[in-house]
Structure formats: C-alpha cells, structure tokens
C-alpha cells in the first residue's frame, strides 16, 4: 500500500476508516473541520505545507459527502502560490470544490492567465487543466486567444498543446463566439496533420464541436479526417503505445468518424472512395474475439462506422450490409452488443428507409422487450415505437399493452404515452383506438397523463360514428368493481355526452347510467366532481320526457353541492340547478359539445418536446429532422391511393373549419353567462389546450340552429374539396387567411434570372433568397424575416424536390422572434437534366392566422448552366460529331413570341446560353453554346442553333445537341418554353412540368398566383 | 462528452468524483446516491449501460469498485466502456496492482492521473506510457 506522503493526511484518513459507525465518522469529520477552520482563521501561522495538507483534507471530507462551506478562498489562494506543490493543490482542489458559477473563481482569472501565458510549462498545464474542467464564459472571453496560441505554437511540447486543445473546446462550448472562424479553419486543418496522437485525439474532439456548429467553415478538414482514418484503420501507422489490444487507437478512430458525420456529403470522389474503402474494411473485418476488451474496442469502432455509413447514405450494398450486421447483433446473447444493435437500428430508421427490412426482425425485437435488463427493454421499446406503421400497429400496440401490466413503474409512463401515440397515429379504425386508450387507462391509470384521455374525448366528439361504440365501451368499464379515477372521468364524460345513444340497450337507461356513475362519486377526488356534475346535467337534459324521480335525485345532489367549498363545484351545481329548472329550454341550452378544432396532438407534441441534452447536437437528429419533414410530405402525397386507410395524423379531426367554430362557441357562452349574471369569469380566448376545454364549464350553446347544424355540411364540402382539389396538398389549406404582397409568380421569374431577391412577402413575413451556383451544386440561403413585433409560431418549411434534385434544408426554427431574421441554408444537387421545379411548402402561424404557401424555388435548369463561348474551330467538329436523334434534336417551333433577333440573343445570354455572333454564316440564325452540369452528366457541352424566318417571326427551327439524350430533350423543351408564349392549359400533354420560366414576367392571372393550391395543381 | 466520473465502492462510498458540468453541492450528493443505487444491484449479465435522467451511465465493476461515467446519449458507449478499462490499467500500472486502499490513501494522486487522462470531459491521452511518464515528471517536482 502506497502512502500519501503527507502524514497528517494519512492519519486522518486512517481515523476515518477506523470509525465504527456513521456517527463516529461525523464526529471525527466535525472535529477536523473545526480544526481546519481555526487554523485558516489565523492564517499567519500557516506554512504552505500545512495549508496544502488542510486543503487536501477538505477535499477528502467533501468526497465523503459532507458539506464544506468554507475554505474555498484558501483553495483558490493556493493557485497563486509561487511553488509547484502548493499551486498544484490549489488548482486541483479548486476544480473539485468550485464550479464555473462561483464568484471566487473570477478572482483567480488574472493569476490563471499569467500562468497560461507564462513560461513555466508545468504551470501552464495546471492552468489549462483547471480552465478546461471548470472554466465558464468569463474565462472563455478573456483566455481563448491565449489558449489558441498555445495550441498552434511550435515551441510548446505536445503535453501543453493537447491540454490547450481541450481547454479551447471547453471555452468554445461556453461561448462559441470566442473562436473566430476566419483563419482558424486552416489552423484546424493543419492540426489534423499532427503526428502526436495525444494532440490529434484532443484536437479531434475540438473539431467535432466546431463542425457540429458550422461544417461549412471547416470544409477543408474533411479530407484530412479521412486521411487520419486511413492512417489508423488501414495503414495501422501508429506507435505501439497507441494501440489498444492491437487496435490502433479506437478512440481516435471513433472521434474521427464522429467528426465526419457532421459533413452533409462528401463531394470529392477520391476522398469518398478512400473513406468507403476504410469503412468497408471495418464492416467486414471486425470479428468477434474472446478478449472482452479487444472485442469492445473493435465494436466501438464498428458501431461508429455503421453510423457513418448510414449518414453517408452509402450504396445499397453497403447499407444492406449494415442492416444485416444489426440484424445479427440484435439476436446475440452478449447484452452490450444486443443493446447497441437495437439502439442503432432505431437510429437507422431515422435516417434511411429500411422499415421493411427491420420489420422482419419484429419477433426478435419483441423478445428483447421482455428481457430482464431494463436498459435493453428501453431500447426495444424505442425501436418498436420507431418501426411502427399502419401495417404492424395492431401487433405492436398489443404487445405494449401486454407488457404494461408487468412493466416496472419506471417505464410505465413512457410506455403508455408511446402506446397512446401509436394507437392514434396508426389506428386502422377508430374503435380500435378507443379500445386501446381505455385499456391503457384500465391497466395503468396512474401513468396515463390527462393528455391521453383528453385526446380520446376529442376523437369521440368529432366522429359521430364512434360515439355509440365509445359510450357502450365506457358503460362496460363502469361495471368493473374497482376502476381508476381517470376511467371514471372519461366514462362519465362520454356517457354524459353520448349515453343517450344507448338508451334502448339494457342497463343503459338514464336512471341506470346515473346510478352507476353516481356510485363512483364517493371514491373520486374533488377535482373530478365537476365532470360528474356536468354528466348529471347532461343526463337530465337527455331524459325526455323528464323523469321526475331522476330529476329530484339529481336536484338533491345539485342542492347539496350548491354550498360546496370548492368554487368550481359550487358554481356548476348552482348553474345546473337553475338551468335545469327551466324545463324544456334546457334542451336548447345544454346541447351537445361542439366539435373540437383540429390541433396537433398534445401527446405527439409532448413526445417531440422531450429534449435531449448533449454537448454537441446530434448529427443523426439534425439529419433526421430534415428527412422527417420531407418524408412526411411524401406520406401525405400518397394518401389518396392508400386504399382507404385513414391518413396517419388526421383521423378525422382535420376537416374542421378551426377558428370560426371555437369563436362561435365561446361568444355564445359569453352571451349567455352575462345574461344569467352568475358566471364570474368567462374566458374569451379560444382555449389554449385540451385541458381548458374539458375542465372548463359545460359548453353552453345558443339555439342549436346555427353553428351545430351547419357543421356537418361545412364538413362534407371541405372534405370533398380536399380530396379532389389537390393530391399533394395536405388538409389545412382552408386555414390560409394571409394575403401575399406582390405577385408570387413575378418574383419567381425574376429570381430565375437573378441570384438574390425576395421570393415571397406578406404582412407578417418576408422570405428572401440568396443563391450561389457552382457546377451541379447550389447553395441557397432562405432569409425568413419576421416583420412584426410578435413571434411567428409553428414555422415549417419543407422542400418538395422533384426527382432530379437532391435537396437538404437545414433546420428551420419553430418560431421566429419579433423583428428577427433567420437564415436557413439549403443545399441543392442536380442529379440529372430536368425542367421540373422544386417547391417550398411553407407555413406559419401568426396569432390566429395560419398561412401556408407553396412556392416554386428558382433552382431551375439554367442555374446549372455555365456560359461558354466557342470558336468556329471548336463548334463545327462537335456539331458534326453529334449526329441526329437522340443526341441532336430538331423541331420547328410555331407560335413564338415575335422578337427582334438582337433581343432574342439577349434573352439567350441572360439564361447563360452564350450566343456566338457571326458563327453562323446566315445573319438570320443564332448559334449558342453552354455547359450543363449534373451529377449524372457531369460537365456537358450543349450546342444550339436557331434558324429564324425573317418573313414570319412567329416560327423558327431549333436544333439542340449534347452528349446526353435527356439533356438534349430537356434543354430543347426548356428553350421552347422560353420562346413560346403559351397559356399553361394548352401545353403539350406530355409535360408534367412547371410553368415556363419566361424572361419577362408573364401574365399569370393574379387569382391563380394568389392561390397556392391552384398554383401547385398547375405545377403538377 | 463525459458529464461526470464516479468511483464508488459497493457500500456507496465515493472514492473519486469529478464533474465536468457545473452542479450544486446538493445536486452532486443526489447524483452520487442515485448512480450508486442504479448500478449496484444490476446483474453482472446485464449491459454496462443504463439510462440516467437525460443521460446515460456507462459503468464497469472491478472487485468491489464501480467506475461510472455519465455521458451524452449520443456518445459511443463501447468507446467509453473501454475508456474505463484503460483508466483502470493506468491506475494498476501506477500503483502496481491497484486496490481500493491505494485509491483511498492516494486520492489526490488519482485526481492527478485523471487530469492527465481526461480533460473538459473528453479523452486527452490514450497512451498508458505517456501518462505514467508524465506522472513520474510530476512526482519529481514535489
């Protein structure tokens, strides 16, 4: 046993160890603390050695779990000791006892800085370590430049530089502004060449943080990272001491692959190839070995490689390798690997479309849901939740319900929330959904949040077909001997509203209903009683002709609660009593609850809101969010064809004219209560959430003639319209109440020729766009500017890309603060030639106004052209070599807008089709050339010849030639559209294509441009 | 990133606690208590990973000592699991056949070693030799 080297400290530790019980230990500790306190009070007599000893003792006592609320000053003051031993203690104990929020720490900033910029290497290390471990914002602001200098200094030993790298990482996390991107990106790239693996490992962690915030700036590090990976995984070019059980630094490999996951794509084909070689090697070459450490280390690398392959969306073959590996892992017995298999399968679901393959493993995954280890069960639950869709929802939800009865408390809430969401999202029919929720409440009432039962009430209220079924189910549950209070509430509510639909069934008459519900009243809490009172009032109202016996029973209850101490109960009792004595008028007053306006499921929102707290934002989540947006949009598109299965997220709630109905009901309520004079407070705002709807007083409607009856009509009309009008537009279009400013089509056409400008504007928002085009890549930035003094909410931007464009829109924030402008970069890659246009589906909420617009994005064919002028020597051989269709296409175009030749030449030039004057001997002809870029064609030369007829300017002969048949065709059509002024309706039937991007703003009817739905329909 | 590192024995006595995120004292005590309860009763046949609040604890048991790292849920679990083992190997090398008592009486040395191994919640050095050599340099200075 090694001794501490400080006798006093060792003795103290021994004393503590010899204590027989906790009480003795406390006494000993108190004695020591008293001793230290007195010694610190009279600091003059204290030698540095003693001071050091006491500070260590304090740390030890702190570690034992005792509060040490003094002596911080002494610890901090040791930092400025001149000698190493004391300084060391000062730094170490300070970083254990204090955190970045302690004021004492600020006192030390100057000393720390002096140590960092001083010449004593050991002091530098101590200071960097402390700042790296507990430095806060103030440290970041005052020290970052000094730390940066150390990291790149050529005179510092690796020892100092690796600490500087991580210290800088800490400072960057505290305040990202302290690292100025300009110039630093190059430094980081240089650091990636570092030979010392300690420095490289630390710098890689720093790089991960930097690229997670701004991958564009650190672009140049990408190939370097691939080199590092090659050096480790392929060449095994590392000193022996950096291999771990024969594996070249698995940690550095993992970090490097993590950094690579923040770059959206790898453009350079060579880099991409090298990386895939390494990844392939890792995927194929990782075997299961006996040694557990070696096995863990190699699988750490393997799982990171899997994540990277998924991120890069590699070739099909490699992806299926990954899925196969994961399929193997989730079936192994080794718990860690199985856990990771499940976890990574869930991640895989988020990035790629592998649902079908994963479904094959469903049985295996369900087995893991019954594993004794809760960690594994949690992963299985997440995976089942992620892989659930319409096809397997019934099985999965049933499994979850079954598991609910045996699950430990720690999991029940999550489990019931997830089951409820899945039931809602994927219900094959609504009665099943009702069954599931009632079962949930029955089995795990305590864990079923209010949101869950509010939601089921919403569905039942909004779906007439469902009401008798729900009522009979609720009635059945009431027969059970002991039911959960939530079940009482939901049953009472449903039976109050819809119990009369069961009136003819045995045991369901008003008296019986009242009897069985009232039986439960003594067992429920005060907060639930109002719901029951409302139910009684409703039962009374539905009993026609009135039953005097029932009436007197219920009146007795109302009378009794009329003096209840709880205001809510009292108010309801008094009001209901008065109302119900009005006789037949009651019928009109206590009408059925109106339908609920459609809103996002509070449950789903809740699930989405669960925030995870990580140092760097998760690469996979960033990506998945973008993809989820796109794929959701696609799901919606597919719906009309999905043989009558109710669309995932609407379940009949969607078709409500939202705002108007809420307002109706509220204003009616207000009127009435004013009249009565009893209601003290009526909320005139539309209810903000479900809670206020259900727990608020009973909806008191005016005469049912107006709003209630008109609703089914409105409903069916809207439904019909939604179905036929637009295949692609999800419901909710009708909510559009915001008028655009200016002509959307005009703005689009202007942007087809310019690279920056306004794409859309209305009273609340302005969307600007700025684009940069390079070969087949486009980098656009959307500027979303809130013009108002309050926030825009529920902001959503989804790109609906045509098949030839690969788009990636960075995260769009849900809300845009007042007067703020948000920039959202959008990457576009042109895959192959096409004239189709990408559409931005943009929506937001401002107060009660919903806006949803579909905007064409100016990522049009001519953006991928590069002007090119050719000489006669270059032109003719090319022209001749491309002989005839399909590479060279000719067409006589009629109905051309008559243009002077010079203007036509200008038009061509403005679209980056370079006119070469004088190349064609005939002065009535034009010859143009350009280079077209796409991923499939690469750079491709295009040649165009236009022969005009001076006698008839409305027709011409056009010949287009290129090395790619599709390109020739698309370009020909594109130019034709430029030249011809055809109204959209009469365009050739073959063209499922966008409106022609014409140079001058075309005369698109204003109505059409104001109506995004119609506009989109025209697009398709 | 590593949020905190705990070394605890079976009885829950803390032998080392290092926090890379700012926590109040009371919160630290709570965390130590909860993490101990979380890992101490887990079957050895279970995974080495267990969810803890919004994070994940990666732990490994050596004789009567539990080494627990609390990391982000997006972090690579196995990499951190082996990080624990590397740390144990370094301790073992430094104390030649380390036992709990070494860590008790030399807790301040353990903090020093840890500072050479992990900084700002990230791995700083993975070469055992580099760390042992560095410790030698430091001992000479005392």
From TrEMBL, chain A:
Region span, Disordered: 631-650, 986-1007
Residues that coordinate or bind a 1,2-diacyl-sn-glycero-3-phospho-(1D-myo-inositol-3,4,5-trisphosphate): 7-8, 49, 53-57
GO MF, one example: clathrin adaptor activity
Annotated SUPFAM superfamilies: ARM repeat, Clathrin adaptor appendage domain, Subdomain of clathrin and coatomer appendage domain
This protein's UniProt keywords: Coated pit, Endocytosis, Membrane, Protein transport, Transport
Keyword Protein transport: yes
Gene3D superfamilies the UniProt entry points to: 2.60.40.1230, Leucine-rich Repeat Variant (1.25.10.10), TATA-Binding Protein (3.30.310.10)
Primary subcellular site in the record, as a coarse category: membrane
GO cellular component, one term: AP-2 adaptor complex
Domain of life of the source: Eukaryota
Protein's membrane topology: Peripheral membrane protein
Polar residues bias (residue ranges): 631-644
Subcellular location: Membrane, Coated pit
ATP-binding keyword on record: no
Protein's GO biological process: clathrin-dependent endocytosis; intracellular protein transport
Domain Clathrin adaptor alpha/beta/gamma-adaptin appendage Ig-like subdomain: start-end pairs: 749-858
InterPro entries: Adaptor_Complx_Large_Subunit, AP2_complex_asu, ARM-like, ARM-type_fold, Clathrin/coatomer_adapt-like_N, Clathrin_a-adaptin_app_sub_C, Clathrin_a/b/g-adaptin_app_Ig, Clathrin_app_Ig-like_sf
Pfam annotation, one family: Adaptin_N
PANTHER family registered for this protein in UniProt: ADAPTIN, ALPHA/GAMMA/EPSILON
Family according to the record: Belongs to the adaptor complexes large subunit family.
Function: Subunit of the adaptor protein complex 2 (AP-2). Adaptor protein complexes function in protein transport via transport vesicles in different membrane traffic pathways. Adaptor protein complexes are vesicle coat components and appear to be involved in cargo selection and vesicle formation. AP-2 is involved in clathrin-dependent endocytosis in which cargo proteins are incorporated into vesicles surrounded by clathrin (clathrin-coated vesicles, CCVs) which are destined for fusion with the early endosome. The complex binds polyphosphoinositides.
Subunit structure: Adaptor protein complex 2 (AP-2) is a heterotetramer composed of two large adaptins (alpha-type and beta-type subunits), a medium adaptin (mu-type subunit) and a small adaptin (sigma-type subunit).
Protein name from the UniProt record: AP-2 complex subunit alpha
Biological source species: Acacia crassicarpa
UniProtKB/TrEMBL annotation, chain B:
Topology in membrane: Peripheral membrane protein
Residue ranges of domain AP complex mu/sigma subunit in the record: 1-141
Highest taxon of source: Eukaryota
GO molecular function annotation: clathrin adaptor activity
GO cellular component: AP-2 adaptor complex
InterPro entries: AP_complex_ssu (IPR016635), AP_mu_sigma_su (IPR022775), APS2 (IPR027156), Longin-like_dom_sf (IPR011012)
Keyword Transport among UniProt keywords: yes
Protein name: AP complex subunit sigma
Species whose genome carries this gene: Acacia crassicarpa
High-level lineage: Eukaryota, Viridiplantae, Streptophyta, Embryophyta, Tracheophyta
